[in-house]
Amino acid sequence: LHSDERAADDGIPVVDITADGMTSTPIQQTMDLARTHGPVFKRRLGERETLFLTSLDLVTEAADETRFAKGVSVVLENVREFAGDGLFTAYNDEPNWAKAHEVLMPAFALGSMRTYHPAMLKVARRVMASWDRRVADGTPVHIAEDMTRMTLDTIGLAGFGFDFESFSRGDSQHPFVEAMVRCLEWSMRKFARDPHADHSAEDAAFRADADHLASVVDEVIAARTASGETGEDDLLGLMLGARAQEDGTGAGGPGLDLANIRNQVITFLIAGHETTSGALSFALYHLVKDPLALRMVQREADELWGDQADPDPTFEDIGHLPFTRQVLNEALRLWPTAAAFTRQARQDTVLGGRYPVKAGQLVTVLTPMLHRDPCWGDNPELFDPSRFSPEAEAARSPHAYKPFGTGERACIGRQFALHEATMLLALLAHRYRLIDHADYRLRIKETLTLKPDGFTLELAARTSAD
Ligand code: HEM
């Protein structure tokens, strides 16, 4: 055994990182632990132990909905401080989860993406207008920052009819994003706190940020209710409609209270953009490092839009970009931007035939390591979109790939994210030459979600010869 490792009574290695502490990149730190200690281990930090699983066979068991359900981890408990009982952080048995799920599910079916397509395209055009200016003045683009602007504007417009106008703010982000990132960082750091130190200043700053999030959301809701219309066909409209139904007639309907609607809006603004912007940023990173894959994305886009300067992608076009979709899938395999999810045992059980887990105990799936399980072949670190060809997918266990979590509490926004990201990636590859001017080496920043740090590209307009 490694010097900081001992087997507990249950036979699961315990890796004590208390002496070194948690780094600013806990996911990558824990991936290293998994590489050293294998597919099941407990990470001990002070008094706190977290049980991690990384192998296909163990995750397959943890994904079994009869044995495990979603677990609200310690970090998610911290996120609850500002997202309350929103869908993402709600407990399984909290009535508001089932109500909101029922109200919102239809809004996320594949067909509903047709409703959001125009807003997504409008924001994609904003990205291109901004990038065209970069082409003209020869300055590099900051990829993760621009992808964040684009996904925030998209969820704001498509979900709530609210325009964050992130591309009209120069180099800064909307204050909502800055406050939100600090809140996410606070929930990550709070986990690793020295319980004896004084954290009151940090907590006061967090409270101010959380209040700011709530006030922006109240503005979003007020902008809608002031018009006297609920606007049925977006997320806010559906939620307010369900509320009106209950208030007005008492005649049933799922009914969401205003406090819960506020939590849902915060949840969607957070869940709906951080992860998708990271996915797009990683996809662009891999494309510039893999000229053949970039060429194939370009070819696919060219087949749809030829050399039109300003193509007008239809909803159906996005279904005709299968390789672009494979690139996103593969980017999310290597760097699933929500990199862990937690499961909770429904009853006493035994994992892998030998590791006892008690009813209520939490187990955390470390997704980037699941995505490097031996079932992915000899070279899991290599970017290879052909892993997501229909044949390869059919031959693989559905539990080998979990960037969107699992089961009933899996990501509700998956189709939304993939429609938005596939369209933008294809449009960007169609329009620009992507120039890796700084010979970028991947560094990953963690703010609960993962993003390439300091990734910039220079751009040039593509011509039909490119
Ligand atoms: C849940 C990942 C985009 C809304 C989740 C979960 C994961 C995830 C892993 C499960 C968390 C858990 O089990 O604790 C991602 C990734 C995305 C993405 C990687 C982009 C590439 C979106 C978008 C939206 C969204 C665009 C909204 C428009 C949600 C919500 C939940 C969720 C509301 C909670 C669902 C529930 O428990 O009922 N997401 N997500 N996500 N996601 Fe996403």
Automatic annotation (TrEMBL):
- Going by the entry's taxonomy, the superkingdom of the source organism is recorded as Bacteria
Q: Which family does it belong to?
A: In the N-terminal section; belongs to the cytochrome P450 family.
Q: What is this protein called?
A: Bifunctional cytochrome P450/NADPH--P450 reductase
